[in-house]
Amino acid sequence: MENTKTAPRPRLLTRWIAALAIGMLALVAGAPASLAQGSDSVEGKTFVIGTDTTFAPFEFRQDGELTGIDMDILNTIAEEEGFKVEVRSLGFSAALAALSANQVDGVIAGMSITDERKKIYDFSEPYFESGVQMAVAKNNEDIKGYEDLKGKTVVAKTGSEGETYAKSIAGKYGFQVKSLDQSATMYESVKSGSAVAVFDDYPVLAYGIAQGNGLKTVTDKVPGGSYGFAVNKGENTALLAAFNDGLAKMKANGEYQKILDKYLADPAAAAPSNFFDLVAKSFPALMTGLWHTLVVTAASFAIAMVLGLLFGFFKISSNIVLRGIATTFINIFRGTPLLLWAFMFYFGLPQLLGVGISVWTAGILTLSLNAGAYVAEIVRGGIQSVDPGQLEASRSLGLGYGKSMQKVVIPQAFKMMTPSLINQLIISLKDSSLLLAIGFTELLYQGQQIYAANFRVTETLLIVGFIYFIAIMALTKLANYADKRFNK
Amino acid sequence: MSNVKIQVSDLHKSFGSNNVLKGIDLDIAEGEVVCVIGPSGSGKSTLLRCLNKLEDITSGKVVVDGFDVTDPKVDINEVRRHVGMVFQHFNLFPHMSVAENIMLAPVELKKMNRTEARAKALELLERVGLKEKADARPSSLSGGQKQRVAIARALAMAPGIMLFDEATSALDPEMVGEVLQVIKELADSGMTMVLVTHEMGFAREVADRVVFMADGVVCEQGKPEDLFGNPQQARTQDFLSKVL
Ligand SMILES: Nc1ncnc2c1ncn2[C@@H]1O[C@H](COP(=O)(O)OP(=O)(O)OP(=O)(O)O)[C@@H](O)[C@H]1O
Ligand SMILES: [Mg+2]
Q1: Omega prior to B159 cis, within 30 of 0
Q2: Residue A395 and residue B95: Cβ atoms within 8 Å?
Q3: Pick from A12, A284, A378, A410: most CB atoms within 10 A?
């Protein structure tokens, strides 16, 4: 299932990143995950567990609550064994990266137990036996089996068993395999006709079909791997033992079968009946997302302004060292993708520092440093666009450099900078959506969570897009109003 | 000549390899009005800007109002409060009203509180004939009015010396007169002044002494009637034949 690749190992990060990280240490105020390691009893402890975002019926959001087979099993075991869990839905690869970085204690994410993974993680007893099945669009009468796939394209999830299986028979039946990242997007491409069939885990398919994802299964399931709960090798042994113990008890007392039936035999239709129902159902989660988007953007932009002013002034300084520092800062953060830093701060930095970093801290660091580099250039440009005669006139009156800057140059520079700053603010707001990759619960992330559970991809994205549009329009209007008000 | 107000000895100034001032000696007495003339690029502006250290001095000595400007320990901001400067392009602060332009230095340098500074600004504006423009923005003024405000601003710290760098060159001809009138009144009030100018008629009228610069040196200097009426140097004669 899912990735057979190993998750990135931050241990391999090179030295220069370490140097950089130390420079940023001052900015870091992360709350470490509650990492209870190597203790004897789990009772009364709280463990941080990472999981996927979009793997219904194992984990998905329903009315804002994280639910699914994995969640129910985890919660039942936790209750049985007397420990608490704090679940972070990060996405599959991100959850594994977080485990390696000790940002989480364990991962439960519909993850197959493979020999490859066993080298890095310790797995619980299997808690689910899976298998691959093929599905096509509901109205497709042409594809009834693998023989009908000749010359066609099918989709499978990147790194999943479905992909492995599809590839293993692709030559024999003469079809192409295209790999995608999420179940929901795979189903969309089958419905839209860009692929004729999807190979996916049977429970996932079964659940999606029950939710009205517009597909039907056409082959028998091919027995496949089994899912397990994972901890870092040699760590959290008590947690693992408790998981196994609880699982055995659940299987014995019938709780386990009840959970499977709930999601697989007769899943309640979670999908809203119409568009307005969808809007109404998804609204609370999307508003939480919007709020997080706005807060992370505002906090980051405030820091970016401070950084931008500082480095913008360094950039025009006559001191070659300060200029060098500013140029380096600007080039590093303008010359590298935002997403790279999000991963670096969330997965890499905790490994280097030995303390956990909250997703908020990582998100704000990422956005503020990126925007700070652009703001520095805006500040430099703004100051340099002020007639040098202005500074000379002020200096000739006997005002010092600082006072002259403050009273004469900066007010004029700001006036010229305002449109660019508003522009950068909007870019930062949109860029904050990239933080979904580290599981930051912003607007687009909430949208993904919603369509991962109900498979209404297009409509959900439309709603999300509309909210972004309105938010940005409002922000632009507000900024322009403030500009007129203060920069007349 | 009584008190020496400005003392320039063997002043050199170069921009990189470009030697602009090549050994200037010039003493200016208190209350003296000196006009500096000369061809474009001869270093007139550079000389003026060395007097209040808007340009770093390469070598030589400049003493202004008792302060050794070339001494690295001198508080240059303190020196500049004794020296007002008026620029060719006015350099008024566009984001402030006319009165605020004038009040900036007295208020920021804590010489006066805002009320006093405003009263002083109005007094100065009255002196240059622009009292009614106190609350206008500089952008709404004509060139001549802007330059008169700039003069009022330069006077706000009550300097003992005023420097003018082609104060009328950027003005439409019909506005030159009003600015020259203000400068002339200042000269008559006993202010020590150094004016770089292309207005030969004005120089002849207002100056106690005219300095002719060429190629980074003082080529010839003297009373206006001597220098304009009977120039000794060939370069001076050549220059004057072109501009008069
Ligand atoms: N900041 C500077 N950097 C480099 N060179 C400069 C600078 N300022 C002036 N110069 C050079 O110094 C020389 C003298 O310039 P300056 O402005 O003093 O001449 P000027 O006599 O005032 O001429 P004008 O009548 O055209 O104003 C010119 O060759 C000019 O190019
Ligand atoms: Mg000049």
Answers
A1: no
A2: no
A3: A378
Name the residue of B24, B42, B199 whose CB sits within 8 Å of the most ligand 1 atoms, as the mutation to test its pocket. B42
The label of the residue with tokens 């209040």 reads B52
Q: pTM for the whole thing?
A: 0.72
Residue at token pair 């019909």: B174
- CB-based neighbours (< 5 A) of ligand 2, an ion: B 45
Question: What are the chain A neighbours of B84 within 8 Å (beta carbons)?
Answer: 396
User: Over the stretch A279-321, which tens digit does the pLDDT of each residue have?
Assistant: 888 888 899 999 999 999 999 999 999 999 999 999 998 899 9
Question: What HEC string does B101-123 produce?
Answer: HHHHHHHHCCCCCHHHHHHHHHH
Nearest CA, atom 26, ligand 1 = B40
Name the maximum alpha-carbon separation found in chain A: 89
In the numeric block, the tokens 């808690």 are attached to: A127
Task: Specify the pLDDT at position B157.
Answer: 93
Q: Where are the alpha helices (DSSP H) in A317-456?
A: 320-334, 338-343, 349-353, 359-384, 388-396, 401-404, 410-431, 443-454
Cβ separation B80–A403 shorter than 8 A = no
- C-alpha distance from B157 to closest chain A C-alpha (Å): 8
Question: Which pLDDT does position A279 carry in this prediction?
Answer: 84
Question: What domain count does chain B have?
Answer: 1
Beta bridge partners of B22: B12
Residues of B in contact with A390 (CB under 8 A): 91, 93
Q: Considering only CA atoms, which of A89, A61, A57 is closest in space to residue A73?
A: A57
Q: Tell me how far the alpha carbon of residue A20 lies from the centroid of ligand 1, in angstroms.
A: 45
What one-character DSSP code corresponds to residue A55?
Answer: B
Show the domains of chain A with their CATH numbers. 10-30+275-486 (1.10.3720.10), 46-126+228-270 (3.40.190.10), 128-226 (3.40.190.10)
Give residue A227's region: left, alpha or beta (phi > 0; psi -120 to 50).
Answer: beta
Token pair listed for A214: 């517009």
User: How far apart are the CA of A235 and the centre of ligand 2, in A?
Assistant: 77
B103 to chain A: closest CA residue: A397
Instruction: Give B109-152 pLDDT, tens digit per residue.
Output: 988 899 999 999 999 999 999 999 999 999 999 999 999 999 99
Cβ under 8 Å to A: B residues 52-111: 52, 54, 77-81, 83-85, 87, 89, 91-95, 104-105, 108-109
Who wins on pLDDT, A41 or A119? A119
Closest CB to B80 among A387, A395, A412: A395
Q: Mean pLDDT highest for which of A30-44, A53-67, A218-232?
A: A218-232
Query: What CATH number did the domain enclosing B198 receive?
Result: 3.40.50.300
B164 DSSP β-pair partners: B86, B195
Expressed as residue numbers, the domain containing B98 is 4-241
Cβ of B108 and A407 within 8 Å? yes
Residue A187, by phi and psi: left (phi above 0), alpha (psi -120 to 50) or beta?
alpha
pLDDT tens column, A2-41: 443 333 333 333 444 443 444 444 333 333 344 444 446 8
B194 in A contact zone (CB under 8 Å)? no
